[in-house]
Write the structure tokens for this entry.
Amino acid sequence: MNRLTLLALLLLSPTAGAASLTVFAASSLTDAFTEIGRAFDARTGHRTTFQFAGSQVLRAQLEGGARADVFASANDAQFTPLLGRGVVSREVFARNRLTVIAPAGSGKVRTLRDLAGSGVRLVVAAPNVPVGEYTRRMLAAVDRSGTYGKDFAARALKNVVSEEGNVRQVALKVSLGEADAAVVYASDVTPTLKKSVRVVPLPTRFNQTAAYPLGVVQSSANPEAARAFVAFVKGREGQAILRRWGFLSPSP
Amino acid sequence: MRRAGLPWVGWALGGLFAAFLLLPTLTLLARGLGADFLATLRSPAVLDALRVSLWTTSVTLLVTVLTGTPLAFVLARREFPGRALLDALLDLPVVLPPVVAGLGLLLTFGRGGLLGPGLELAGVSLAFSPAAVVLAQLFTAAPFYLRAAKAGFASVDRDAEAAALTDGAGRWGAFRFVTWPLAFPFLLEGLVLTWARALGEFGATILFAGSLQGRTRTVTLAIYSALDSELGPALVLSAVMVMVAFTVLLTVRVLAARRARLGA
């Protein structure tokens, strides 16, 4: 037997217990889950692959019959409808906060008030994207407080030049300098992004807490490995990685 | 003459393939034309998308004809060093992945791009504007017109032009009354193809122009973003696209047939 067929045989016949795992996860989890996947695979011998997208896209795909073993969403709105029908469990494994970012070289948006200023180009996520939902809740909270005058939210939303389908696309537009400001998660300000953006202070009383649920998908071909992945994310090592990428602990 | 018979395996395989090509479009049509077609068609999301697509593609076509026609004429008629190379380079957008085209546009005309600071000084901000939609369509679709127009101008009988010139027509007159009418079927065919490509443009648009309802969200972008929440508008717009695409193909066929008759 030559070496190539041996290799093919090795690839085709998984060693006992090793499974191929597909994880659908919110875009904001891209960096943290990629690292968690590597650590999990090294520990268990499984082979984990990810699909990152806006949670609403992943939910639609799961409803459309997409094959996955684990689903991690950035909000409940895109998760709970699947409970029972597509997903068998729900555990909050991380929380997140919002942050406003602006291009490092631009002084157009220095404070929260500037979001509603005239001639400001704002990029946010669409309302059905979790971060888009939190963004609008945050703007409404500022509006209610009256701190920045009447119709703050309406004026800010009028400045929106594009509604993106996931949070990483929102961040990209600011890092390229094409938008004057954007609302993303605190965890999106990764070391890479930090080089090109500036964080605009967002008072805690206006901020929104995003809770991330994850669960095993009903049709999973490897429910045992899927449960192991969920446990790993909730465990010490997974939590440490999440914390390193700027996520908060699951319990307030 | 005895016709070569096709073995039954051939029939089966060919039929299977034809069904594969037909089924998805027919399914789209059937689902899209379902009960609430008209109601969904009148929804703001759908109307806005149709309006944005209609007028951005119109501007794209206008710019294509005005700038593409002289360029095609020069490329078809004049010899100059590097013409073959220029020809190939101008064809590049046809084979370039649209999302690459979008990145190129963003890095060239975006605020942080090559020409960005200059444009900004002039008070022009292109990214995320309807103008960006037009530029994306122009970049990816206009080369189709260029190709067809070049072929058209190359096919015109030079003797007819020469005759017009000796009969006292000016160069513009010769172009207007001889060259243009003879090349016209080619130009029209190129224009229809350009329009179809512009209408279907997605990757470059979403990257360079973003997606905002009523402003930069064209039909294809609207289908994509509707898929995130409710299927209705996506189905209706998809059905519209299937019908438009079929009309475009039919038009091109008719034009090609007419061209062939004229040539014969």
About this structure: Residues 44-77 of chain B form the longest helix (34 residues). Chain B has twelve helices and no strands. The radius of gyration of chain B is 22 Å.
